[in-house]
Amino acid sequence: MCRLLLLLVLHLNLLDLSSSEDETLVILTLSPAEEDETTRKIGVYYHCPDCAPGDVLRVADEHQIFEKIIGDPRGFLRTDLRVSPESFSDITATILRNGELIYSSPVIDRANWMHDNKSILKYLSLPQLVIPGTHQSGAYDRPETHGIWNLCQDLSIEDQLTLGIRYIDVQPSCKRIEDQCQSFFMEYSLLEMLPMDAVFSEIKGFLNRTNEIVILSLSDFSSEFQSDEDHARFMEFIKHELADDLFSFNTTSHGWSTPLGKIWKAEKRLIISYNYGGPVDPTFGTGVQPFWCNCQRSDDLHVFFADPQKRKNWANRKIPSVDVVELIPGWQTVVPQDSSNSAESSPPFSFKAWTEEFSPKVCEWYHEQWNATSNVVVVDFFETTGVVDLAVHWNKKRGEDTMKKITSA
């Protein structure tokens, strides 16, 4: 009983964090994939309130180096350094003062960041974490999708997980056979992206080689799902395909508030969020409704997420709260106006380039402003945003705060 009361107190008071956003933090990002290029350019978000004039930011591996004298205490820099996603972890960032090291970016094993911090995260629930997620996770570039302008990711689902993503967003659809949903796949923009068993295979491949916990969100079902029976058939398919990995919510009275330690103990580490208004199998978590803004400008998106109703202390929530941090280009942006009278026609619209220009805002907002009120942060082309390393940083803060409360209770 005392332990239960302690966990309740922690649940209500977890995010009374000190103002650690004033600590120095440097986060590296990757530019979107370019055609015929195996490497990507490195970007740098830095926040250094204690930096002095003349301090030098250095980004390097054993083959290349970038240095820049820090002018402003915070900002984002694009470098000419290039690296493959597989070698991303070899890049380090440091800050030097008169040649002496005053900051070094932490080494993060992005494939195992949750379990590596198990000792301080095991008392937290999923709604109490900062969880990096991808929007339309299966809408990634591969030969059969090449040329689709509005793909949302560059890497496969398994590679997304390997680089630290822990929330996978999938829009299910099905092929109707004899007026029943009998063949399931992921859809995006009315296009068939991946067979659902391929989505599951990528997730299982990652879970089988790590001890990480993953949320799979199933929402925005296509109109091909026409009845409760269609959903029931899909849920049975999910349970059959994912039986070895699926954490069952009907084994716990805590639901989404189940501590991570209990999920690890169950040795079932895949959480399904099934977002449907009809009957849902009790194996699955209550569907998570995301906050999503049909915004074309970053200023409008900031106003949307800065709403106090969306920035409450997440420790009191019973289910995860999801911020879908993306801009939606209008047709006037995608389709240039008639340029027949101009000397040069406008270049074709690039969704990747358009997204990359906005991506530095993610670290700025979720580190400097909303660090204590964020939960699931979902983005396009996640490597450009630094959302994984930012999540690891703040989860350590929350975990350490939790342990202090336990030891002082």
TrEMBL record:
One of its GO terms (biological process) is lipid metabolic process. The keyword Signal applies. The keyword Signal applies. Residues 119-275 form the Phosphatidylinositol-specific phospholipase C X domain. One of its GO terms (molecular function) is phosphoric diester hydrolase activity. InterPro entries: PI-PLC_domain, PLC-like_Pdiesterase_TIM-brl, PLipase_C_PInositol-sp_X_dom. Keywords: Signal. Residues 1-20 form the signal peptide. Transmembrane segments: none annotated. This is Phosphatidylinositol-specific phospholipase C X domain-containing protein.
